[in-house]
Amino acid sequence: MTENPHPNVKVAIEDGIGTITVDRPERMNACTGAMFDALHRAAIIMRNASPRVVIFRGGGDHFCSGADVSGESADGIEGVDHGLHSMRRIGDAVIALHELPMPTIAAVDGVCVGAGFGLALSADLLVCTDRARFALIFARRGLSLDFGTSYLLPQRVGLHRAKEMALTANEFDAAAAAEIGFVNRVVPAGELDAAVGDYVERIVAGPPLALSMSKRLLDNAAHSSLAQSVEAEGLAQNVNFATGDVAEAGLAFVEKRAASFRGQ
After folding, report:
1. Which residues lie below 8 Å from residue 24, measured CB to CB, with a gap of 6+?
2. CATH code linked to domain 2-204
């Protein structure tokens, strides 16, 4: 299945693998207001189609240079009468992407800054090339943080490091990103697809419902007590016990073969 909620935002699903591509390479995939709206629709498409895994990527040699602040495009968000409403619609996009129930992977090459950085951070895993560059460039534009970066980045790197990145607007290369800890893996530029494919293969082979609930447990843990987390784990395991996947895992173990999980 291929669907384009916007000419520069493309959605594809094949063999249980979903891909959302920000495809405006002539502007390093800078997003207009309408493109942010389309990212929200892309998330809804993925939620309804329920692929095993979803990949976020950029067209060409870059991931995303954030919002298009050039003023040259009239491709805005329709049906809003105030800038706050526009920002809320843009915020709805990153919420929808971050809350996708299936595992998500950001495949980052080249520039990944501003709201583009937020898009990458909204994924569960972030794989980048050795030529990737990251920055919270908002301060350089006279702006404060947006597209979820004020929430997502501290979750990855801690509050003090996030403040350093926001207040200085410094650029970080792939090696620094790995040292700081907001990327999972750095690979040569020509090996990005293979590295993402390795994660995808492992995730697609896993139990979909169990992985989805593990994702929710981890996302909610920062806002829960230990007692709340343990209770949520118990509820999730009882859902798992009632699925055929647990029976299949046991049978596969006895028969010394790989399990074939169906998410049922």
Report:
1. 8, 30, 31, 35, 59
2. 3.90.226.10
